[in-house]
Amino acid sequence: MQTSLFRRGFLSRTGLRNVVAAPRAQPMAEFIRENVFSAHRERILYPIAGLSLVAFVPLGIHHLLEGDFLIGVLLLVAMTMLAVDTVAVYRHHVAPIPFRYLLVPTVACVGVMLVSNGVYGALWTFPTVMLAYFVMPRRAANLTGVAILAAATALLVMFQDEGMALRFAISLGLCLVIVNLHAAVLDTVHQRMLSQSLTDPLTGAFTRRHMETCVQQSVERNRRTGAPASLLVIDVDRFEAVNDAYGHMAADLALRALAGLLMARARKLDLLFRMEGGKFLMLVPDTHASQAVKLAEHIRVAVAQTPLIEGRSLEVSIGASELRAGDDPDNWVERANGALARAKGEGRNRVRSA
């Protein structure tokens, strides 16, 4: 028996959370939620939590013993929040305290240290600003960094001297610029890698691997909420004969044009994937079988009426299948493939459902 791709370990629990099934018309940048570090927060959290707890819990206790109650309490509050989130993430639960809230006691503590310790307190603004880029959206992190820069500079002018404040402002300002340059490069690389891994280079449709993720998500959504969904498996009739008659290059151009036509005829939330050769799968969310069959017939007619290869049209057979209670991704796709086989067996260029 052939092993299903859905059971080969391509999809992890983390992977399902991090891959976003975006509408077909969105640019690939939409896959980067908030900023490039967002998907890796849990991974970043462990070393930050370990080092912070080892370093700052004793420091907070030391400040309490020395009579610096405000600094000591703020440090211990920040470390407690961090510990609570870390334990929750370790147990595969949602962090109960939003990561951005960790900045509240941290920034307050840095402000107090700036007033009491001057330049030594100013040094703590640098890791605080860096932390903002890991726990907040990039725009919010930039606003936070600029606010910390302005407030810390003002405090240094008030309680220290202008020369020190100027040198501090230049140093932290350069750090903000450098972090943004690095983040911009990482965003570009991340976007390119996502595009390569999720998009078929020939047709512009999503890849089979991303199809597996999105179909699995639809099954899980149906189990949680009962939301309907349907699949359309669309296959070019006699595609090998098309290859033989017109050549691979012309056939590739026809597939690209066909994918463009399918995307144009689909709805905004529908997702198109290339399975293999001239075979595509369209995931149709929030749609029952009767609606899916109507959409499939609309697509079949449009393909038959549109010149796609050297002034001639192609024909497609389509199998439709609605998600049923208790389905897993394999039998859902298999039913759609079975409906496609019936359409082929009954003469091609038609729609059948299962």
Record keyword descriptors for this entry.
7 strands, disordered N terminus, Alpha-Beta Plaits, two-stranded antiparallel ribbon, about 350 residues, alpha+beta, five-stranded mixed beta sheet, 13 helices
Describe the protein's architecture and organization:
This protein has two domains: 157 residues, no CATH class; 146 residues, Alpha-Beta Plaits (2-Layer Sandwich), CATH 3.30.70. 62% of the residues lie in helices and 10% in strands. The chain contains 13 helices and seven strands. Helix 4 packs antiparallel against helix 6 and helix 6 runs parallel beside helix 8. The chain is elongated. The two termini are 23 Å apart.
End-to-end CA span: 23 Å
Q: Which ranges are low-confidence, i.e. pLDDT below 50, for 5 or more consecutive residues?
A: 1-33
Helical content band = 55-70%
The biggest beta sheet is recorded as: 5 strands, mixed
> Strand percentage, roughly?
5-15%
Mean pLDDT: 83
- Tell me the strand order in the biggest sheet: 2-3-1-6-7
List the secondary-structure elements in sequence, H or E: HHHHHHHHHEHHEEHEEEHE
| Structural domains: how many | 2
Number of helices: 13
Structural class: alpha+beta
Care to count the β-strands? 7
Note the overall shape. Answer: elongated
Instruction: Say what oligomer this is.
Output: single chain
Radius of gyration: 28 Å
